[in-house]
């Protein structure tokens, strides 16, 4: 009799445990499913953020390279290794075709042509980055006169 009582007691406990676990299992599964969905969403956001960060890093390197190249061009102009027109062509070569940029340069410098705008861009870059360097300041003034002469006699 004691064995039968124990067996009934164990069976009842197992039954209750099964009932509780099965009735809670669907809500547990639903909660786990929701958490997994949220986790996957977060992984996607992290991946997109990583991709965006990589894209920003790539663009930053491109901008830094263009800026560094502009300084090299200005060094060449200052040392007399490049003319104003050569420097303007090299400045233009650093950019991708961009009509809004050309329009912006025209509005800033009041130019009649893209070539004139690029020449003025070179002169402005040299002037703004000459600091206390009298050679660069003098070269910027020379280039301004050279551009004026060129525009005066250009067809």
What are the main properties of this structure?
155 residues, mainly alpha, 5 helices, 86% helix, elongated
Give the helix/strand layout.
Elements: H1 2-78, H2 84-94, H3 99-109, H4 114-128, H5 134-153
Helix pairs in contact: 1-2, 2-4, 3-4, 4-5
How does this structure look, described?
By secondary structure, the protein is mostly helical. The mean pLDDT is 78. It starts with a helix and ends with a helix. It contains five helices and no strands.
- What is the count of helical runs? 5
The radius of gyration computed from the alpha-carbon positions, rounded to a whole number of angstroms, is 36 Å
Range of helix content: over 70%
Count of DSSP strands: 0
The low-confidence parts are none
Summed up, the domain count is 1
Overall geometric form = elongated
Q: How would you spell out the order of helices and strands?
A: HHHHH
Percent of sequence in beta strands: under 5%
- Overall mean confidence score, pLDDT: 78
| Largest sheet entry | none
User: Helices and strands: which structural class?
Assistant: mainly alpha
Distance between the termini: 121 Å
């Amino acid at each position: 009799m004691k064995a039968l009582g124990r067996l009934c007691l164990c069976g009842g406990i197992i039954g209750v445990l099964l009932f509780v676990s099965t009735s809670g299992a669907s809500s547990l599964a639903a909660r786990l499913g929701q958490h997994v969905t949220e986790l996957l969403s977060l992984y996607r956001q992290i991946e997109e953020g990583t991709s965006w960060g990589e894209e920003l890093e790539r663009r930053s390197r491109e901008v830094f390279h263009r800026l560094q190249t502009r300084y090299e061009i200005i060094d060449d102009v200052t040392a007399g290794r490049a003319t104003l027109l050569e420097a303007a062509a090299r400045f233009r070569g650093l950019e991708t075709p961009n009509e809004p940029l050309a329009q912006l340069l025209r509005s800033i410098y009041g130019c009649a042509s893209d070539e004139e705008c690029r020449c003025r861009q070179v002169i402005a870059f040299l002037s703004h980055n000459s600091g206390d360097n009298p050679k660069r300041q003098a070269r910027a003034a020379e280039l301004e006169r050279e551009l004026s002469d060129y525009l005066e006699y250009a067809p």
